[in-house]
Amino acid sequence: MKTFITSNKEETILLGEKLIKALKEDQNVILLKGDLSSGKTTFTKGIGKALGITKVINSPTFTILKTYEGYKTLHHLDLYRLNDIGQDFDLEEYINDSNAVTVIEWPNQVEALIPNQYILVELTYLDENKREIKISSHNTDQSWEEKL
Ligand SMILES: Nc1ncnc2c1ncn2[C@@H]1O[C@H](COP(=O)(O)OP(=O)(O)OP(=O)(O)O)[C@@H](O)[C@H]1O
Ligand SMILES: [Mg+2]
User: Fold this and answer.
1) Domain that holds residue 36
2) Contact 139, 115 (CB under 8 A)
3) Which of 23, 44, 86, 89 could form a disulfide with 27 if both were Cys (CB 3.0 to 4.6 A apart)?
C-alpha cells in the first residue's frame, strides 16, 4: 500500500495518470472509495488521460455507466444511485471486460460482483484542496508501487 497527499485537483489527476501507466495490462479493475467530493471522479480524469481519452469525464446525474474510447476502452461506473435508478444492463459484463479498464465509484453497492483481483484507491477529504489517497493491491502484483 502507498499513501499520497495531493494539494490540488491537478495533482490528483496526475496520480491517476501515473497509476495507469505503472499498472500491468491485466490490472484493469480499479475501485474508488471515498465520501462525496473526495476526488474519485477527478482521479478518474487522470486515468482517462493515461488511456488517451479526450472526452471530458464527469459524473452526470442518472447515469451509472459511461464507456469512453481511447488507446484502450474505459468503463466508468458511478454506482452511488444504483438503488434509485436500477440497471437495465449486465454490470458484470463491464466489470469483467478484460479488454477495458473498469473504474468503479461506490463499489460497495456491488460487492458480490467485484473480482478477486483489483486495485483499491481510498480517498479522504483533508481540507478544501488536500486529499489523502491510499492505493493498495488486492491479490495482484504490487510492482506499480516502485513506479509511483
Ligand atoms: N486535491 C484534490 N484532489 C481532488 N479534487 C480536489 C482536490 N482539491 C480540490 N478538489 C475539488 O474537489 C472536488 C472533487 O470532486 P469529485 O467529483 O472528483 O469527487 P467525487 O469523489 O467523485 O464525488 P462524488 O461522490 O460526488 O462522485 C472537485 O470540485 C475538485 O476540483
Ligand atoms: Mg464522482
Assistant:
1) 2-147
2) no
3) 23
Q: Is the CB of 28 under 6 A from ligand 1?
A: no
* Number of separate domains in the chain: 1
In angstroms, the CA 116 to CA 97 distance is 14
- Is the Cβ atom of 40 under 6 angstroms away from ligand 1? yes
- Return the CATH number at 125: 3.40.50.300
What atom of ligand 1 comes closest to residue 43's alpha carbon? 18
The predicted-structure confidence for 107-145, as pLDDT tens digits, reads as follows: 998 999 999 999 999 999 999 999 999 999 999 999 999
Tell me if 75 sits within 8 A of 100, measured CB to CB.
yes
Query: Ligand 1 pocket, 75 CB below 6 A?
Result: no
Separation of CA 25 and ligand 2 centre (Å): 25
